[in-house]
Amino acid sequence: MSTATVIAARAGDQRALDALVGEYLPLIYNIVGRALQGHADVDDVVQETMLRIVDGLPRLREPESFRSWAVAIAMSQVRDRHRRQVQAPLVGDWADPTDTADPGADFADLAITRLRLSGQRQEVAEATRWLDHDDRELLSLWWLEAAGQLDRDEVVEALHITRQHAAVRIQRMKAQLDAARAVVRALAVRPRCPELHAIVTRWDGRPSVLWRKRLARHTRECQRCDQAWTDMVAAERLLAGVALVPVPFVFSAMATKTGALSVGAGAAGVKAGGIKAVIAGWFAALKPAMVGVAATVAIAGAAGAVYLTTQGEEQPEQQVAAAASETPSAEPPSSAAPPPSSAPPSSSPPASKSVVAAPPAVKTAKKGVSTYNFSGNGQALRDVKASWYYNWSADPSVSAISGVEYVPMIWGGASVTTANLNKAKAGGKVLLGFNEPDLKEQANMSVQQALDLWPQLQATGLRLGSPAPAYGADTPGGWFDQFMSGIQARGYKVDFIALHWYGGDFSTAATNQLKNYIQNVYNRYKLPIWLTEYALMRFDNGTVYPTTDQQVTFVKNSTAMLQGLSYVERYAWFSLPSSKSGDTGLYSSGTTPTSVGAAYRAAGG
Question: What's a Gene Ontology MF term here (predicted)?
Fold first, then answer.
């Protein structure tokens, strides 16, 4: 969300206010929902938070800090609700038994079903039920940081503690989360360990801190159950790129029950109408596409949002209009941070595929493709109207094509040879750095190794792009952040930043998530951006692709967005060839685009 939109909303622009509410409601809902683990009070706390945000907006002195300010308000409301619960009178010796999580709103279940989590991501979601209140409160922020929706400074500000204290608390919470993951694993094993079975016969089946400690202790001491601790992928890597849990239907359905209430009526009128009526009024005023997305409980199948196409950076008036027309999603994406991409595969295209009628081709200096070798490379490069391409190598895969620039790459540590560096100098004016060095399955390089080899790439004299991390380029202290700090400390150069991004959320929110990730990286390093791999795909127990219609919609929306960002110099879809039906490939033969290829061919104008 642009600062211009916040300023306009603060000045009383109703459309800008609607845009703010539409974008930030999902973020606030996810923070509160996870902190309260789907308690029946979640809706009330979310609504009270949004009301306080709107009431306080005219007094916000620093519009650029709107997001951290809104998150801090949400956490304050969560703490107030917790204090009220602690001070509430007891029923006999026990707390009110009705003061429990809403059976239909358990946030772990919502995350699993609505985001289609599986494998270790599902284990993480289930493990959150075993944390205490303070850890769940912290988790609600850290989960979004790991997913790329918040940055560490925003987490620190919301907690009202120092950065160092936040780091210590997060490490402790992650340790408790890992213990809970081990418990979830051990309980899921069939047949169950006899000793564990004997212990749980006394358990009422409700996750709790006491039982987490008892069961985790058993998993550490039992030779059979200690396997639950093995092969545990770090939670932050599992959460990278995970989408927000969609806002439930209740927030939009209320509009049909209570009618619209204009926020322009003033704070007194707003309060008189009641908190739920306020939210209903906001959503009634939002564009139908927003309401539809807010009501969606599945990740798939939404229609594409329309993005404004501008030349260069959006002007404030355009930003407000664009914000009002985009689907509501919160940040990131981040960091939306992407899952790993594949090394250049060697599979052949299918023998036949339906021919797609190609729209008029559009050529733009930004639009490019990544491609591995296939028989139709040259023809497809001409047909798709890309201005540049690369192939993860220092050697071009096709003969020179007029008007299509080849950009060489030094793929990994073993690729840093005199022969490859000479080929790169002869092959182009720009050089791409290492391919996903932060992943074992890809270049697999330590920060130190990458820094030690960097002077050899720099000595080519070519314009030099950074290593392209698989994810987390905007994460303080991550692989890429350490690399860039080392570059600065050693006096080396990076001329632009190369990024990869793969979206696991197949809804129309994906474009905003990509945009937020790129924006976060640019804000951190203030260098031009090349998005050298991107598409929609999810890596859960194999590769999961969206429907063709969803991928086509994303192509149209994302290219329009990328064209409008002045600091994005180039972007490249993954990838030019299509190796199987339903993948992200653009061409099944040199002149036969897939549906996705036809959309990309027409994109970028």
Answer: DNA-binding transcription factor activity
Q: Which domains does the chain have, with CATH numbers?
A: 1-115+250-299 (1.10.1740.10), 119-242 (no CATH), 367-602 (3.20.20.80)
What residues contact residue 562 under an 8 Å CB cut-off, 6+ apart? 366, 531, 568, 571
Q: What is the pLDDT of residues 463-491, one digit of tens each?
A: 999 999 998 898 888 899 999 999 999 99
Three-class DSSP category at 282: helix
Quick one: tokens of 504? 């696991």
Instruction: Kindly give, in sequence order, each residue whose CB lies less than 8 Å from that of residue 578, ignoring residues fewer than 6 positions away.
Output: 349, 350, 353, 584, 585, 586, 587, 588, 594, 596, 597
Tokens of 85: 């619960």
Contact 468, 533 (CB under 8 A): yes
pLDDT in tens, 71-84: 999 999 998 887 77
Output the six-digit token pair for 151.
Answer: 């940055």
Tokens of 277: 């009526």
Take residue 336 and report the two structure tokens written for it.
Answer: 């939306």
Distances (CA, A) of 410 to 355, 405, 491: 36, 17, 21
For residues 73 and 166, what is the distance between their CA atoms, to the nearest angstrom? 18
Average pLDDT, rounded, for the chain: 79
303 Cα distance to chain centroid: 20
- Residue reference for tokens 């703010």: 20
- Exposed/middle/buried for residue 236 (C-beta within 10 Å: 0-12, 13-18, 19+): buried
CA nearest to 407, candidates 381, 368, 442: 368
Q: Which residues contact 529 (CB under 8 A, 6 or more apart)?
A: 496, 497, 499, 518, 521, 522, 565, 567, 568, 569
Q: How far apart are the first and last CA of the chain?
A: 24
Query: Which two structure tokens, joined as six digits, stand for 550?
Result: 């969803």
CA distance 188 to 204: 16
Handedness of CA 49, 509, 477, 531 (dihedral sign): negative
pTM for the whole structure: 0.48
Instruction: Give me 90's structure tokens.
Output: 């007891």
The backbone region for 146, taken as left when phi is positive above 0, alpha when psi lies in -120 to 50, beta otherwise, is alpha
